[in-house]
Specification:
By secondary structure, the chain is α/β, with parallel strands linked by helices. Helix content is 40%, strand content 13%. It folds into 2 domains: 37-173, Lysozyme-like; 182-255, Muramoyl-pentapeptide Carboxypeptidase, domain 1 (Orthogonal Bundle). The protein is built from 9 helices and 9 strands. The strands form 3 sheets. A 5-stranded mixed sheet has the order 3-2-6-1-9. A two-stranded antiparallel sheet has the order 4-5. It catalyses: Hydrolyzes the link between N-acetylmuramoyl residues and L-amino acid residues in certain cell-wall glycopeptides.
Amino acid sequence: MRVFCLVLFLALLAGCARGPQIDTRYSAVGQNSRVQYIILHYTSADLARSLRLLTEGEVSSHYLIGDAPPTIYRLVDENRRAWHVGDSQWRGRTWLNASTIGIELVNQGYYEGPNGRYWQPFAPAQIEALIVLLQDLMRRHDLAPGSILGHSDVAPQRKVDPGPLFPWRRLAEAGLVPWPDAQAVARQQALFAASLPSVAWFQAQLALQGYDVPRHGELDEATRNVLAAFQMKYRPARYDGEADAETAALLLLLNSPD
């Protein structure tokens, strides 16, 4: 009897060590990926320092893409949370680490020179590697166009990456990002030039895009920062945060594509 009890006790211990026995024959229809958005960043560092920053400290990302050659590194499993975006908001969701995939691009970002701010261009091969990765992620997580955002979109009061030289239009050509028709923008811009909407209208349209923006009808610094983030993406030639006719046309067409 003592031997039997010992055997039973050891069997129970072994079962506990393996964890509970779970029946996985059934799967619920009501589910989707935890990933709702993909957030793009630049590292502000070279490859060696980027790898150290993203693997040895508290900051992390799911993927890192080098610049020469454009190697894709997976640093965090997609099923786990990476610490890449911090205090953030998009379409009412906050603290987006839990519902996003973070992709860092090796790029120095900018430095202040004697003639103003200088931004480092992105290597074409690096962008092509990014597009291949994005297409795979969008397919596997069943994400719609428009699910790819910049860090500056979700944290416009404190972040500017991936910056004005990031080629959002190239992503649009690959079917990853919505993009308004240039001729339609020009026609609508002419109409808005004759009668510019109010600041409250701009704030409402930016909120429809998904931005966390004030709604008080004043062109304050916070609203300008959000306007600049939007312009950096869709009109990178001028991202001055002004509520102008071209920005109004872009917003209207993006929010009512039909």
